[in-house]
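tool=predict chain=A
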Amino acid sequence: MKEEYVGIKFKVEFLEKLELASSKKLLELIQWCKVFDEFNLAPPYNGGSAGNLSFRAEVGKNEMVITGTKIGLKNNLTFDKFVTIKNADVKQNLVQVVGLIEPSSESMLHWEIYKAQPEINAIFHGHSDVFLDASQKLKWTETENDVPYGSANLVEEVLRVLKNNDIIIIKNHGFLILGKSMDETGVLTMQKRKEALLVIRRSEPTRAK
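tool=predict ok
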């Protein structure tokens, strides 16, 4: 991450301050957060984690559950580290939530993707040099411009190349994996990681014997 993290860049309105209830989906999200940490796909950054994962709370609606801002993805992933986003308005720079902490800095990006792609039910965003280094050779779709994280400009950049892509590289920033379920999204993330590692290994100069 080249840009210094300065916190979320939108206003947060807490509709209710309460811990999210246990659910099968929330427990599944916690497990994928741990996988991201294990494979260094959301490395620690400024006391939190450089990544955010979410799922659509109910099919047909934009309401979503997402990781809170500045949380680590390895330990202490209790339910209070997640929030439900009831509404997000890019123009007003406002996110309305239920939870105990502020939502991820990329909450508006997740919201707008769910809004644009009704078939997408999970979004995993991480940071990995492995993905960035291999992206051009694998011809993965990439945003055109390098813009600030958590901004309306970033939302515009991603939506411009969204189409039906299941992976998007955010220029000089990170990656997005999109799927119809958390399991599909998580498995796809690991498949893309394998592809990237293979490309990188093949491009390494052969060592003299």
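The longest helix spans residues 182-203. The mean pLDDT is 92.
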